[in-house]
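Internal ticket - ligand job 466, zinc ion:
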Amino acid sequence: MALRFYNTLSQQVEEFSPARDNTVRMYTCGPTVYDFAHIGNFRTFTFVDLLRKCLRANGFLLDHVMNITDVDDKIIRNAVAQHKSLDDYTAVYTKAFLEDCDTLRLERPERLVPATAHIDDMVAAIERLTAGSHTYTSDGSTYFRIATFPGYGKLSHNDFSGNLAGARVDVDEYEKADARDFALWKAPKEGEPAWQTPIGPGRPGWHIECSVMAIKYLGDTLDLHAGGVDLVFPHHENEIAQSESLTGKPFARFWLHAEFLMVEGQKMSKSLGNYFTLRDVVAKGHSPEAIRYLLASVPYRKQLNFTFDGLKSAATAIDRLRNFKLRLESESYPEGLNEQLAGRTAAAVEAFGNSLNDDLNTAEALAAVFEYVRDANSAMDSGEFRGGNAAPALAFLDRFDSIFKVLQPTVVANEILDSEVESMIAERAAAKKSKNFARADQIREQLLEQGIILEDTKSGVRWKRK
Ligand SMILES: [Zn+2]
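stdout (structure tokens):
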């Protein structure tokens, strides 16, 4: 099945391929680095990671740009309050974001671009919009006049007729369904840091950074633009208005949006106490693989209900796959090939690929994997599995893991090494021999705290990780 996506712009499922050569020119909205990113943010970033992998699985090359929003109202407010420069303030959260991406095994885009490195480009774009009569200034700030862009509303499918004139906003946070002229350039308030530019002192608004960096690196028309569903309006609508006013061409051919994440059935919020950063969830003892699996398991256009029970089920699901893999690699099977099972394997591989190509239907793709694992396990149990069936089964698991990336356990940084365990066991044996049982018990306790279980057997001490 050819790759197809639901396009927010057309409100249809459409077959996807890049417009020029074999490279997908894509832009996805990145983090605002004013704090640690939460699991709702990572739902979207995990979706983007799956999207990249599925595009590549279809033979496409990628040129993917993601912005780092390192200047906005909240960043300025916090940096000023902490007497830090913007750079010093955002560096901490940019680094944390990249570490979190590594934790979740998210690939880096080909270009990761900070907004503050492109101020000159943004100023030049605003000057061009002004030359085209799309802007006006007020109190030193420059606004985009929405009434000059007749296509406004075509992405969010909101009807803004009669709601466009006059009013304007200069904050980065908007009320829903509130169409107002938006700030392209904001004059500094008292005590705020500012760039000195030909259009006056100040800083860029949030929307202009994405338009400018997308066009700069990818050209006037992108193949694909993606982000969270909360960005459809006003952010992406405003990106379209600015970009198309600048170039006179369609800004992006495909728009993909990932739905919200709920926590235990409720909207995540600090006041409800159900607001979690990725770090919070990992600190509760959940593995990054389980978190990644849970975030990936629900198709991106469905709301995802993040629950701690769901995380445990995710860990169990991963264990089933790891055990299956171990069985394939360690057990021996009679020679030959079970033809029926070989056909079953091929069908499962095809179902897996087709499900992903069907607008990234990860739930169906996972169902194809687990139904196959169940059948293959029972073929092993009944002695019908043959040596020739092992390699295709392992290849299917590899294929699965090239997208889902959960089979390798995360190595915990402070985990005790095998050699350290062995030397402590030797020390314990020596302590026992010299009848220092208190020390021997102490070592056993110490190892247990680090997740190492000792078993005294006739043939010596065996140990395993908890
Ligand atoms: Zn954006």
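Auto-summary: The chain has a mean pLDDT of 93. The two ends are 44 Å apart (CA to CA).
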